[in-house]
Design brief:
Elements lengths: L7 H9 L2 E6 L2 H4 L13 H4 L2 H4 L2 H6 L1 H17 L4 H11 L3 E6 L5 H5 L4 E3 L2 E8 L5 E2 L9 H8 L16 E5 L8 H13 L2 E5 L11 H7 L3 E5 L12 E3 L3 H15 L2
Parallel strand pairs: 1-2, 1-7, 2-3, 7-8, 8-9
Antiparallel strand pairs: 4-5, 4-6
Helix pairs in contact: 1-12, 7-12, 10-11
Bound molecules: 2'-O-acetyl adenosine-5-diphosphoribose.
2'-O-acetyl adenosine-5-diphosphoribose (OAD) binds next to α2 and α12.
């Protein structure tokens, strides 16, 4: 396992930080067994076309296909466990006066790892809304822990979306699809936090999808120290004050250990 060389300045900035924002993407959940989007071969967008699964048009054309795909992903996320990277971020929050995780992920693993302040920019696999008027719908996935139901989905058998108890329209996952605007409230909170933070950690994201990808730039322009953790280089790498080219499940626990051993 590679040892991450952590610059002293990164440790000092983190130790002194009153406010930290961690922007996370699919890479932080990769070590929990959840596929990323853009990896060649295994990435979701290497296997499924965005326009067939993650746009309003896809839902209009074949809501059962879209619903079933998200059901499949929801059940896989439910079975996955938070990994050392999620746990290290939760621990960092406990030792930082003001820390916010801004995630593009919809898998709920940050909350399950113990992070308390989490902004889900792209929604959640575990929330639902009426496809007609967007009101929240409390729908319980009774098959969430049912291996047979997961196998049926893996064989390609489709599930019909449930119906809204208020109006009878279809229920959709509360996910932000391509071509849809980012909801104003979480975006405003994330942008404010980015502008006010002392350190911005960017973990496991290709930083290609906007507006999320603009948050690190906003943080840096407002004076934050920018740290990237990603085994591969991204457009952000050259702008980061420190770029750890390592897996999050290795780099974040090491960062935490370095902070602990330098404390006091
Ligand atoms: P991507 O699949 O675009 O990028 C994942 C990143 O994680 C890549 O840069 C990898 O190098 C990195 N990575 C892989 N394994 C890692 C590990 N163990 N530790 C750290 N990093 C690792 O996923 P996102 O950037 O999250 O939106 O994609 C952004 C958005 O595009 C998603 O939220 C999704 C997608 O379309 C919607 O569905 C709305």
């Amino acid at each position: 396992m590679s040892k991450v060389v952590i610059p002293q300045e990164a440790i000092e900035r983190l130790r002194a930080a009153r406010a930290i924002v961690a922007l996370t993407g699919a890479g932080i959940s990769a070590e929990s067994g959840i596929p990323t989007f853009r990896a060649p071969v295994t990435g979701l967008w290497s296997q499924y076309r965005v326009e067939d699964f993650a746009t309003p048009g896809a839902w209009r054309r074949n809501s059962a296909l879209v619903w079933s795909w998200y059901s499949h992903r929801r059940r896989l996320a439910y079975r996955a466990q938070p990994n050392p990277a999620h746990l290290a971020l939760a621990e960092l929050e406990r030792r930082t006066p003001n820390m916010i995780v801004v995630t593009q992920n919809v898998d709920g693993l940050h909350q399950r790892a113990g992070s308390r302040t989490v902004i889900e920019l792209h929604g959640s696999l575990f929330r639902f809304r009426c496809a007609d008027d967007d009101t929240a719908v409390a729908w319980e996935d009774h098959d969430i822990d049912n291996a047979e139901a997961l196998e049926r989905l893996e064989r390609g058998e489709l599930e019909a979306p449930p119906v809204c108890p208020q109006c009878g329209a279809q229920v959709r996952p509360d996910i932000v699809w391509f071509e849809e605007p980012m909801p104003r409230k979480p975006w405003g909170a994330a942008a404010n936090a980015a502008q006010a933070c002392d350190v911005c950690l960017v973990i496991g994201t290709s930083a290609l999808v906007y507006p999320a990808a603009s948050l690190p730039q906003l943080a840096k322009a407002s004076g934050a120290y920018l740290i990237e953790i990603n085994p591969e280089a991204t457009d952000l790498t050259r702008r980061a004050n420190w770029s750890a080219q390592a897996r999050a499940g290795v780099a974040l626990p090491e960062l935490l250990r370095a902070l602990e051993s330098s404390a006091g």
